[in-house]
Design a protein that fits this description.
The chain is of the alpha+beta class. The chain has 8 helices and 6 strands. The protein has one domain: Up-down Bundle (Outer membrane efflux proteins (OEP)). Helix 4 packs antiparallel against helix 5.
Length: about 400
């Protein structure tokens, strides 16, 4: 064996090993939906953002109401520059909020932390929704790719039969031309389906945000008849609006706390007409005498509460409409699936088995065979589309119910 031939065989062997390795790697990278959700949670920056927001609000709640700065200053009374006369003082002064004001501010920050927690829960549930949809789309694309390959094989078989009949003189060129045309269309459709699969795979891995390229496992879940509760208690959108309403109520209390008096205290170290040391003190309260602006702020905060109450009612109404529509569409989709699976699929499967044999025997013409073949292809595609729509609707309904 000469050297060029050995080199060529070596390259072929390396190419074969590489292909086997890539196929094995692709199989090893298949992950379940639960694993995909875990990977997405670990890499999604939005969750980290909301966790930091929760931490920020929690730290603010621990701090409560900030103590006012301590005042340090010098003062003098009855003082002249001619000698040691008058009263000179080193002063320390501090104002204190009442405990009720501290409590109101701490409650406001604590409610802010709850709002941040609700936002975190909403972000996580939205991420699960998007990743689940991406997972289902990729499963659908894989099954559609397999279906396109099956359809291509059906049209190849038809072309083989028409070619044999043309060569034997049983038929003219028209059946073969029709078969070649349908085969070309099926090949074009297969390319289109492959492109859809690559797009779905790319988007799925973008949601995962990992360095490794992953693949889904299994097929689209079958439809299961279950009773769906229409409770809105677990809906993350509603819980977030409720938390914002509570935050607005807490804001009213912080505005009211501004009307509370503050404790005013002070201590002096003095020198009076040459006598040192002497001490002095002061104690009193700071009271807001002009309350109009304070009351206006309280009224504005109370209006904000009404705004959140209206937002809550609006959210409830929109959710009820959305859930009602999704439940109706899901039920309708289950009826479609049941009809396709129980009535049409058995017919077209039987039709697929006998059509080619009937055409070989001359029992049906090529137009009748093509019509039957296209019915088989159409019903299989309809069933796959309906199954995907069912699963997508199920994900949407679970999301809006907070399941």
């Amino acid at each position: 064996m000469n050297k060029p031939s050995q080199t060529k065989q070596l390259w072929l062997l390396l190419g074969l090993l590489t292909a086997v390795f890539q196929i094995g790697s692709g199989q090893n990278n298949g992950i379940s939906l639960e694993e995909a959700l875990r990977i997405a949670r670990d890499s999604y920056a939005g969750l980290e953002r909301d966790r930091l927001s929760v931490e920020q609000q929690t730290r603010l709640a621990d701090s409560g109401l900030l103590t006012q700065p301590t005042q340090l200053f010098f003062s003098g009374e009855e003082f002249n520059f001619g000698g040691q006369s008058g009263v000179q003082s080193i002063n320390v002064q501090q104002n204190f909020y009442l405990p009720k004001a501290h409590k109101a501010q701490r409650a406001y920050y604590q409610q802010g932390a709850k709002v941040a927690e609700r936002q975190l829960a909403l972000t996580e549930q939205e991420l699960e929704r998007q990743v689940t949809h991406a997972y289902l789309r990729l499963q659908y694309a894989k099954q559609e790719e397999a279906l396109a390959a099956e359809n291509l094989e059906l049209y190849r078989n038809f072309l083989e039969v028409t070619t044999e009949q043309l060569e034997s003189g049983e038929t003219g060129r028209i059946p073969q031309l029709a078969a070649r045309s349908r085969l070309g269309q099926a090949q074009l459709e297969q390319e289109h389906v492959r492109e859809k699969y690559q797009i779905a795979r790319t988007l799925f891995n973008q949601w995962l945000g990992a360095d490794t390229t992953y693949e889904v496992v299994g097929e689209l879940p079958s439809a299961v008849a279950t009773t769906v509760e229409a409770s809105l208690q677990n809906n993350p959108h509603l819980q977030l609006v409720q938390a914002r309403q509570e935050l607005a109520l807490a804001k009213v209390e912080t505005q009211k706390a501004q009307l509370l008096p503050q404790i005013n205290s002070g201590l002096r170290l003095q020198s009076a007409f040459g006598t040192f040391p002497l001490f002095g003190y002061q104690a009193g309260v700071n009271v807001p005498l002009f309350r109009k602006s304070y009351k206006t702020q309280i009224e504005a905060a109370q209006v904000a509460v009404k705004v959140e109450e209206a937002a809550l009612r609006t959210e409830q109404q929109e959710l009820q409409r959305t859930i009602s529509e999704l439940r109706y569409r899901l039920e309708h989709q289950m009826h479609i699936l049941a009809y396709l699976e129980e009535d049409l699929s058995p017919i077209v499967n039987e039709q697929s088995e006998i059509n080619l044999a009937a055409y070989r025997e001359g029992e049906v013409g090529y137009l009748e065979y093509l019509d039957g073949l296209e019915q088989v292809v159409q019903v299989k595609q309809q069933y796959l589309d309906a199954l995907y729509q069912y699963n997508a609707l199920r994900v949407e309904l679970d999301y809006w119910l907070g399941n």
